[in-house]
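Q: What structure does this chain adopt?
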Amino acid sequence: GVLRVDPSFSKTGVATALIRAVLTEIFSLGNAKAYRCATAEKRGFYQRSGWRLIEEEVGGDELDVFEVHSN
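A:
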């Protein structure tokens, strides 16, 4: 699915909180990894949030692919 936060909430922690909640659910179901696609402009955000960039500018939308492991 798509997860977007209204730009007026930029840098308020809303996106980080939503992602943490989703990851908590994913890992509670027994998954050891999660993957996320995002635009290159969001690369820094995901890398600062602990996601590892595994592919750059994939497909027609040229999205980056990230992974994160459960703790």
